[in-house]
Design a protein that fits this description.
It is a single chain. The chain is an alpha+beta fold. The chain has a single domain, classed as Beta-Lactamase. The chain is built from 5 helices and 6 strands, in the order αβββαβββααα. The longest helix is centred in the N-terminal third of the chain and has 15 residues. It is globular. The termini are far apart.
Length: 130
């Protein structure tokens, strides 16, 4: 039986299926690493770096919290990113997963001005789900 497990010592090769799944789903720059080893950076459907870390990934590993910010250094310098910790069942940080934060880059007000029915659609979807 095949199985995928993540631990603080997961390598780039171990994390590759997760990076590929997240990147394929969202289609935006994706990074992932474990606590002990550098990981993967993916862009445009390709693994760009399989020994990657970045300042926000490092900060999340240290603080064990979600961080949204614009890094002042690294590959994504000047771009909004969001990085989340990957935690054990006990809450210990095992790794970090990051994305370029497209939501931060959107002008939400202009989106709602151009698509006023979106609020109604969201409300209808919520009603159907309850």
């Amino acid at each position: 039986m095949m199985c995928l497990k993540i631990c603080q010592d997961s390598t780039s090769e171990d994390l590759k299926p997760i990076a590929e799944a997240v990147h394929s789903l969202l289609g935006i720059p994706t990074t992932i690493r474990s606590k002990s080893f550098h990981g993967i950076r993916m862009e445009k459907g390709q693994i760009i770096d399989d020994d990657y870390t970045g300042p926000v990934l490092e900060e999340v590993l240290e603080k064990n919290t979600i961080i949204r910010k614009v890094p002042m250094e690294g590959v994504y310098k000047g771009k909004a990113v969001v990085v989340v910790p990957i935690r054990s069942n006990e809450g210990e940080v095992l790794g970090a997963l990051g994305l370029v934060d497209l939501v931060a880059a959107l002008d939400i007000l202009s989106v709602f001005r151009e698509y006023p029915d979106i609020i109604d659609e969201v409300e209808e979807a919520k009603k159907r789900m309850s």
